[in-house]
Amino acid sequence: MKYQRPKGTTDIIPGESAKWQYIEQTARQLFKNYRYNEIRTPIFENFEVFSRTSGETSDIVTKEMYDFFDKGERHITLRPEGTAGVVRAYVENKLYGPEIQRPFKTFYMGPMFRYERPQSGRQRQFHQIGVEAFGVDNPTLDVEVMAMAVNLLQQYGLRDLKLVINTLGDAESRTKYHEALMAYLKPLEDVLSDDSKERLHKNPLRILDSKDKKDQEIVANAPSILDYLTDDAAMHFATVKKLLKTLKIPFEIETNMVRGLDYYNHTIFEIMSNSKAFGGNWTTVCAGGRYNGLVEQLGGPEVPGIGFGLGVERLLLVLEAEKIELPIDEDLDVYVVGIGQATNEETLKLVQALRHAGYSAERDYLERKPKGQFKAANRMKAHLTLTIGEEELQAGKVNLKNMQTGNEVKVLLDDIYSEFDKVYQGIVEREKE
């Protein structure tokens, strides 16, 4: 039998994993600057965590969730997105308590699972980096979250980006809009797609997000939610637009954008790239929005929230298509070349000492001749080689060679163990002269 990875999954092998580490490290540092701290939630949750929050008419619930009954007959779901699990953890751990500073800011990283047709940038196991902020209904926070998302993508080297925003208003706005949308769509029910016919009576806003071309033609002339906003909702959205302009962040308004999950309200946004990775079409790389009311749905108090999610696989495809080289340094600091069997113990002691001193170090394990060891050092892009043979071992000295310049010096073996930092700095300073 030939064993292969499951369909819709990918092995992230050494070399590729370095790119992932850079993506994650960059995000961690930026989130730290914005005072977001990491949260880690289970990869699987109770089915209701997602079915209740994502919406019974969403594609995630109706088509894509990996759900099963475990041995205790509990209905379990592999998480299809990050927000609902974070909200569950926020409620269960009472992170809304009076002693908790507001906004409560957190971020997550990890795999998500959706059963869908695998394609470029869309896998059955995919990875998201996301942020959530709870406890503040101020539109200033909406803008800060969007600005952080734009900032993050720019730090990765992306420039040709487009921020698209919309509002779904408050509960009263949506009720009025629901009535207007129903009045528009009901006479067209017969020509809607089968999915949209079902959604018409459950959640007609989901029809605005339909990928069916006929549906898209119909909703192109649908009423705009912007005409049904309450005064408070209109003021919230007006402030968002004003503050984006204050920060000089360009944006476009797309009134038919609703996002794929039912828990969103007020501000929603998508950041798109027209990368060659997707045929030059504008494709969403990062998206999010406000979800006031979601905490109450999962048994918590009335606490507003907002966040975004970024697809790592899709981001890497865009970076590759744009030929953006990530600044990844996998070079080796020191390769220890041992000549003769008698040096085996000493070379082992040397690489361990160098590692403990904070340097990356490697040695030969295949009993190769010196020429083969130097070739290995070149392949690993070693900055220095430290060579010790039986004569050097007896004399208590080693040869240090700068692999870039070819310059070589003799150094006391004791100095390698006791003050390698000073030795290394001396070599660097000597090369500057």
TrEMBL record:
Belongs to the class-II aminoacyl-tRNA synthetase family. One of its GO terms (biological process) is histidyl-tRNA aminoacylation. Signal peptide: none annotated. The lineage of its organism: Bacteria, Bacillati, Bacillota, Bacilli, Lactobacillales. L-histidine binds at residues 81-83, 114, 128, 132, 259, 263-264. It catalyses: tRNA(His) + L-histidine + ATP = L-histidyl-tRNA(His) + AMP + diphosphate + H(+). GO terms for cellular component: cytoplasm. Keywords: Aminoacyl-tRNA synthetase, ATP-binding, Cytoplasm, Ligase, Nucleotide-binding, Protein biosynthesis. It comes from Liquorilactobacillus aquaticus DSM 21051. InterPro entries: aa-tRNA-synth_II, aa-tRNA-synth_II/BPL/LPL, Anticodon-bd, Anticodon-bd_dom_sf, His-tRNA-ligase, HisRS-like_core, HisRS/HisZ, HisRS_anticodon. This is Histidine--tRNA ligase. Homodimer. Its EC number is 6.1.1.21. It is found in: Cytoplasm. Pfam families: HGTP_anticodon (PF03129), tRNA-synt_His (PF13393). PANTHER family: HISTIDINE--TRNA LIGASE, MITOCHONDRIAL-RELATED, HISTIDYL-TRNA SYNTHETASE. One of its GO terms (molecular function) is catalytic activity, acting on a protein. Its main location: cytoplasm. Residues 23-327 form the Aminoacyl-transfer RNA synthetases class-II family profile domain.
